[in-house]
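Running low. Any example?
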Amino acid sequence: MGSPLLQAQIDIHAPVPQVWALISDLRRMPQWSPQCRAMLVLGRTRVGAKAINLNRRNKMFWPTTCTVTEIVPQRKLAFRVDLNAMVWSYELEPIEGGTRVVESRRAPEGFKTVPTLLVDKMMGGVPSFEQELVAGMNESLRRIKTAAER
């Protein structure tokens, strides 16, 4: 069984609107995420919008689809991965001198049997894969910070 919540955060020395512009453009997800190679939003980014993703880990590639579940402009963007029901979100908070960004992965519906078995067999098990996901979150946030502070 995995962790119901994975999370990372960073403080960025840029105003919320500038950081929001980077995060809310989901087509740019491959620039931030070390695992995401492509993210194609079908239509405009809005609650209910679908996206097709291509992910990579070492030599393994796999597609996923997701659904945008929440948009609070300049505050929160969330999407649900359709296969495993994991909800990924970015939350922005104004702080002195910039923006705090928290990236989270939640398991509101628990862990689905088939995706968990696939992670166990193909990705070295849930604990090590979750460690890799948190490392990826931290890398994503560092990349967003670098872009925002340019």
About this structure: The radius of gyration is 15 Å.
